[in-house]
Design goal:
39% helix, 12 helices, Aspartate Aminotransferase, domain 2, 2 domains, seven-stranded mixed β-sheet, binds pyridoxal-5'-phosphate, Aspartate Aminotransferase, domain 1, alpha/beta, 374 residues
Length: 374
């Protein structure tokens, strides 16, 4: 089967670095995690980065660090992975769903405005598939209503909005290094910010609320046992094993994103002759990270089944998350999301997709059109 996603690992650099870290005697939260944070902040053009064990944890901590809780509302798209909507719930707040733009599948600023109430505290735009949200409009709305913006950049590592790195525009940016993301480490996440106060708070929150991490307490050959815990924190920091993988993967991120871009370009060219396949867009303000390649097609479920019989896996990103029971059936009022998701199909896209695999996907879709008489 051709998978939908497949991680590409920079093994030549990862393997010797793993060997070194195993020999070093320090595999927990330590100097390699700090180095990864520094390099990642530099890459995204932000002052600070805090490494955690997933984007789910990053989003949770970001909402928590803003003091958002009971009776508060956070505006999120429903066209996303469930973690975006869970972040406010973890903090006792409500997720309020805003609709998306039909072409980019990113949150619609006009609907954000409609969903703002006196309880709204933050907006979490998701750069869907690595396509930038309309950040100027979103930041203007947020400034006008005194709301915080947390960019869910899980799909957008290396993507740009008007030349600026995704994840560097809002108050915080949350990244995922999950196995199928653009910078895969297995699992992992990062929060970027320019706010020093938030940075210090996030560092303590990720490490059960302890004000000094173990590495800092043991520097200079001396291990100081003293620390303080002044608030309820969580256990979701990164470790140095993940960090060395992240450092190696960061070096090849742009190259791998370019390989993704080439596959996406070839798909779009091939589908020009199949007008029933609506291909993803790249607006002039976006430089896509091409995390995934999502087409809109009629008979989505049938095409999905047909391709499976041809050895091709596809995915659906996403069923609207407000459908899930955890959101207690909140009436979402997202008509575009409701209509469009039924037609969404994610095709295989990863840096190492071969020519033969590419042709197999295109042929499969052509044959479906012939056999299904679309
Ligand atoms: C949009 C979005 N947000 C958040 C997450 C959560 O990422 P992680 O798996 O690193 O917790 C994902 C992961 O699939 C995602 O796609």
């Amino acid at each position: 089967m051709i998978p939908v996603f497949k991680p590409k690992m920079n093994k030549a650099e990862i393997l010797p670095e793993l060997e070194k870290i195993f020999d070093s005697g320090w595999i927990g939260l330590g100097p390699k995690t700090s180095e990864f944070e520094e390099k990642f902040a530099e890459f995204t053009g932000t002052k600070y980065a805090v490494a955690v064990n997933s984007a789910t944890a990053a989003l949770h901590l970001a909402v928590h660090a803003l003091g958002i809780g009971e009776n508060d509302e956070v505006i999120v798209p429903s066209m996303t992975f469930v973690s975006t909507g869970l972040a406010p719930l973890y903090c006792g707040a409500r997720a309020v769903f805003a609709d998306i733009e039909e072409d980019t599948l990113c949150i619609d600023p006009a609907d954000i405005k409609r969903k703002i109430t006196g309880r709204t505290k933050a907006i979490i735009p998701v750069h869907f598939g690595g396509h930038a949200c309309r950040m100027d409009e979103i930041m203007d709305i947020a400034a006008h209503h005194k709301l915080s913006v947390i960019e869910d950049t899980a799909h957008g590592c290396g993507g740009r909005y008007r030349g600026r790195m995704l994840g560097s525009i809002g108050l915080m940016g949350c990244f995922s290094f999950h196995a199928v993301k653009n910078l895969p480490t297995g699992d992992g996440g990062m929060i970027t910010t320019n706010d020093e106060g938030l940075y210090n708070r996030l560092r303590s929150l990720r490490w059960v609320g302890i004000n000094k991490d173990t590495w800092n307490r043991s520097s200079g050959g001396q291990y100081s046992w003293q620390y303080s815990v002044d608030e309820l924190g969580f256990k979701c920091h990164m470790n140095d094993i993940t960090a060395v993988i992240g450092l190696a993967q960061l070096k090849v991120l742009e190259e791998h994103n370019e390989m993704r871009r080439q596959v996406a370009r070839r798909y779009t060219e091939a589908f020009a002759e199949l007008p029933w396949v609506s291909t993803p867009v790249e607006k002039e303000y976006s430089r896509n990270a091409w995390h995934n390649y999502v087409v809109k097609v009629p008979s989505r479920n049938e095409l999905n089944e047909f391709l499976r019989t041809r050895g091709i896996s596809t995915g659906v990103h996403y069923e609207p998350i407000h459908h899930y029971g955890v959101f207690k059936g909140d009436a979402a009022g997202v008509p575009v999301t409701e209509r469009v998701w039924e037609s969404l199909l994610t095709l295989p896209l990863f840096p190492d997709l071969t020519d033969a695999e590419f042709r197999q996907v295109i042929e499969g879709i052509r044959d479906f059109a012939r056999e299904a008489v679309l």
